[in-house]
Amino acid sequence: MTIIRSIALFLAAAIAEIGGAWLIWQGVREHRGLLWIGAGVAALGLYGFVATLQPDANFGRILAAYGGIFVAGSLAWGIVVDKFRPDRYDIAGAVLCLAGVAVIMYAPRGDAGSRAHRAVRPSMARDCHTDGSQAMSWSKMRRSPSHFRESSGMRP
Question: pLDDT by residue (tens digit) across 13-31?
C-alpha cells in the first residue's frame, strides 16, 4: 500500500508541476495572460506541498526520484496536450529514468542503509582519541571551533 500511495503522490506532483509550468508557458509564450500565469504559479506551489506527503522522510531521495518521474511525465504531457511525438531515444531515456526511480525509491534497504548512515555520522566518533584523551562531542565542536582546534592540537 505504501508503494501505491507513493506512486500516486508522484503522479499528483507531476501533474501539478508540469501543468503549472505549462500554464506559465501558455501565459507568457502564447500571450494568454496573467490568469494563466497565476494558475501556473498556484499549481507549482501545490507541487511543492504534494512532495511533502511522500512516505519516505528523505528530501534528497524524494526529489532525486521525482526527477525521473518529471522526465517521463513531461514527455507524456507533450504527447497528450501538445501532440508531441517522441522518438525512440526519448522513450529509452524515459524508461531509464523510471528504472532509476524504482531503484532509488523502492529497492529493499532494510536496516543496512540506516546502519551505514549512522556509521558515518560524526556523533558516533566521540568516545576517545588513540592517545587515550577524551574526544569532544560534535555538538560542542560546532559551538566552539577554537576550543576544538586547541584540544586536537591544530593551530589556527
Answer: 999 999 999 999 999 999 9
Residue 58: which of 1, 105, 120, 121 has the closest Cα? 105
Considering only residues 124 and 98, tell me which one the structure prediction assigns the higher pLDDT: 98
CA–CA separation, 133 vs 130, rounded Å?
Answer: 7
Cell of 32: 494568454
CA angle 135, 139, 140 (to 5 degrees): 60
Extract the C-alpha cell encoding 13: 506532483
The whole-angstrom separation of Cα 72 and Cα 90 is: 9
